[in-house]
Design brief:
It contains 13 helices and 4 strands. The chain has about 325 residues and is α+β, with helices and mostly antiparallel strands. Helix 4 crosses helix 5, helix 6 packs across helix 7 and helix 6 runs parallel beside helix 8. The chain is elongated and about 175 Å long.
């Protein structure tokens, strides 16, 4: 009798343990919730999710949400998107938001956007409520050389069809900055831009800057325009300073060449003087040799010295008779 009782108790314990294991492996409560919400998911589907290492709640809860919103999304597609690394709950929320806003969006498109790394729910919300992108301060120079510093606010709306492969906000900001620089740079004076800042908006909008991006530009508003530096005058000043330095360098080069030529002339004169002194030193020797050889007599020497004295006297008289100009 005791053995039978123990066997019955053991059987009950075994059944309870097996039941706990089954309940642990099969989320019956989740299945009941799906059944109550009208979502078609079977126990075999839940078992298959466990075997494929898929968390059933990540699939069933979005499925219930989609069923309540009136969206027919197969369980297999949700599970495939989860296994691909996507965010199933965000995709379903995006589909519900798009359906409420009358935006055509299929599950395949939403899944592709999500797998591309973009927030598909935020994109749908941006399609309904456009986003304002504020550019940094952009500096540009007009033709008259005055710098203008402008800041723009770009209102954009997400383009669902171009979210996959489309450029982001950085491209929009860069293109708007390029348009502002082009518009200001083509203006004759900075006053033209200050008087009509809408010229920038019209010019930039006319360039189709949203081509190839994930957004559609709705408007471009110039938030602020300030006058910056007089770059033209600064460039002229820098050019004049550079020209001055070049002229100074050339003048210094000419001065150095003149000094070099003067030094060469001085050296040449000194060399000539040395030769004259050397030649004058040879005169007494030549005269002595002439006396010794008999080629020059005393009377000849005396007559020569008289001629020299007479010549000096004539030169002295000629110099004394020349009127003085006092350097004028």
């Amino acid at each position: 009798m005791n053995f039978v009782s123990l066997s019955g108790i053991g059987l009950i314990v075994l059944i309870v343990v097996l039941l706990l294991i089954v309940l642990r492996f099969i989320p019956v409560g989740l299945w009941i919730s799906a059944l109550a919400a009208g979502a078609r998911v079977s126990l075999f589907d839940l078992i298959g999710m466990r075997l494929r290492r898929v968390i059933p709640s990540k699939i069933v809860n979005p499925l219930i949400k989609a069923e309540k919103a009136g969206l027919a999304v197969p369980v297999s597609k949700l599970e495939a998107h989860y296994l691909a690394g996507g965010n199933v709950d965000r995709v379903v929320n995006a589909l519900i938001a798009a359906e409420r806003a009358n935006i055509p969006l299929s599950f395949e498109r939403a899944a592709a956007i999500d797998l591309a790394g973009r927030n598909v729910l935020e994109a749908v919300q941006m399609s309904v409520n456009p986003k304002v992108i504020e550019t940094p301060v952009i500096a540009a120079m007009a033709i008259n050389g005055i710098e203008l510093r402008a800041k723009a606010k770009v209102t954009v709306r997400a383009n669902i069809d171009r979210l996959v492969g489309g450029a982001g906000e950085e491209t929009i900001i860069a293109r708007v900055g390029e348009g502002i620089v082009t518009t200001v740079g083509s203006s004759q004076t900075h006053k033209d831009v200050l008087e009509n800042p809408d010229r920038i908006s019209k010019t930039v909008l006319g360039k189709g800057l949203d081509a190839g991006t994930a957004f559609e530009i709705l408007s471009i508003d110039i938030a602020d325009v300030d006058v910056g530096r007089n770059i033209g005058a600064q460039l002229q000043t820098d050019q004049a300073e550079a020209d001055k330095r070049i002229a100074q360098a050339k003048a210094e080069e000419r001065r150095a060449m003149a000094v070099a030529r003067e030094q060469e002339m001085i050296a040449a004169v000194q060399e000539m003087r040395a030769k004259v002194v050397e030649a004058e030193a040879e005169v007494p020797r030549a005269m002595a040799e002439a006396f010794r050889s008999g080629k020059l007599g005393v009377m000849d020497y005396y007559n020569m010295m008289n001629v020299v004295s007479d010549t000096k006297m004539r030169e002295s008289i000629a110099d004394s008779g020349t009127p003085k100009t006092d350097g004028k």
